[in-house]
Amino acid sequence: MKKRTVQVAIIGFGTVGTGTARILMKKRAELERKSGVPIVLKHIADPDIRRDRGIKLPKGMLTKDTDTVLNDPDIDIIVELIGGIHPAKEIIIRALENGKHVVTANKALLAEEGRDIFSAAEKNRVDIGFEASVAGSIPIIKVVRESLIGNSINNIYGIINGTANYILTKMTEEGVDFESTLSEAQALGYAEADPAFDIEGVDSAHKLAILASLAFGIPISLKKVYTEGITGITPLDIQFASEFGYRIKLLAIAKKDKKEIELRVHPTMMPADDLLSGVSGVFNAIFVEGDASGDGIYYGKGAGEMPTGSAVVSDIADIAKNIASGSTERIRGINMHGNSGLKIRKMEDIRTSYYLRFSAIDKPGVLSKISGILGMNNISIKSMIQKGRKKERAVPLVMMTHNAREKEMMKALRDIKKLSIVSGMPMYLRVEGDES
Fold first, then answer.
1. What is the pLDDT of residues 181-207, one digit of tens each?
2. By Cβ atoms counted within 10 A, which residue in 153, 154, 201, 283 is the most buried?
């Protein structure tokens, strides 16, 4: 019996589109052997059909005409790789309404408009694959959705933005400031010309919203993800973190506590001997705690032409196998109805340890005033460093606290800032991996 051939079209021929096309064409025979299904790349649509991507395409494959691709009755799977919200959303909705399965790497679109996308997939009884939307080559979507299906997940957190991790790694290893490191990252192509989504934590928040929906059965809740970036991190804070035995990472954190979920992205101090603290450069790593599986860490390249293309092809192969077997509608994987009974905890109600740095005048009574305000807000000091004695001049006063409630910490910092003995804004970082 002749095998059913599955035909694919890519819309968006940038970095990831090029990697996806390269894998589909170079490894066509290997993909058929492994999946049991012939997978053929028929079209690639992009406004720029002249730029050399370093890949040789058959004549007529590359086109500017997206409409022809979307309306081609022979196409089974549309791969959307243009990014952004519009026109990506309209392209995906049209593809789904035309009865075509969709694969996308578009985390921003899924996080912000996922309800419409997944509802359209459900209505039109087609699959949508999105493995490449989170953590590049790391198959974390499949792990959470399939491999850990027998688990109730308690915690899922990690480093899921390579640009921010590269910047923090360079600052830690070389002692350079944020602006210099960002400029270098842009020159090397690790950061965009406009890096706001990466350095302000927005990209990580998009990915966390998707992961949390899969892990905890909640609707995609991007607006409820507390988001804070790394622009305020200084070499001084990195130095003090090291003296306390910690490193600073931009973490995306989802934690379950009884009937509530914490969803937060922010720079975080972690013990230097924690496995995530050792993740350097543009690499990603995600920690998952399941009640049956226990703790697991998933590590790999979080972006790039071939790593992300690998994740895209994984979804294409899965959907192709479903098409060939007549068993589609299997891999949507997002809960659109919010029936888990879990609520998102307000940020002001979370409890964690804190790193605090004040610029305080070096004179008697300063410590007692600051510690008094902390004590009045139920915050106790675990350890402290004061360096560079300069009588009657401001010097760094650095503290680590025991667990405290966010609301009380923010009130204490506001009150401390009003003291005449403190100059500038107090610096604070939340601490993970420290249960005290």
1. 999 999 988 888 899 999 999 999 999
2. 201
Q: Tell me the CA distances in angstroms from 342 to 62, 91, 163, 339, one per residue in order.
A: 47, 33, 32, 8
pLDDT digits (tens, 9 = 90+) for 223-244: 999 999 999 999 999 999 999 9
Provide the CATH number for the domain formed by 347-431 in this structure.
3.30.70.260
d(CA 350, CA 363): 34
pLDDT digit string, tens, across residues 88-107: 999 999 999 999 999 999 99
CA–CA distance, 361 with 337 (Å, rounded to integer): 55
| Pair 257, 147: CB distance under 8 Å | no
pTM listed for this prediction: 0.95
Instruction: Say which CATH topology domain 140-301 has.
Output: Dihydrodipicolinate Reductase; domain 2 (3.30.360)
Is 207 known to be catalytic? yes
**Rounded mean pLDDT of the chain?**
93
* Catalytic choice (142, 207, 249, 256): 207
**The pairing of beta strand 39-45 with beta strand 62-63:** parallel
Sequence-distant (6+) residues with CB within 8 A of 160 are 134, 135, 203, 204, 207, 208, 252, 284, 286, 302
Q: Does the pLDDT at position 338 exceed 70?
A: no
Domains 6-136+305-325 and 140-301 share a fold: no
List the chain domain ranges. Answer: 6-136+305-325, 140-301, 347-431
Q: Which fold has domain 6-136+305-325?
A: Rossmann fold (3.40.50)
**The two three-digit tokens of residue 96, written as one number:** 């789904």
At 392, is the pLDDT very low, low, confident or very high (cuts 50, 70, 90)? low
SS3 252: strand
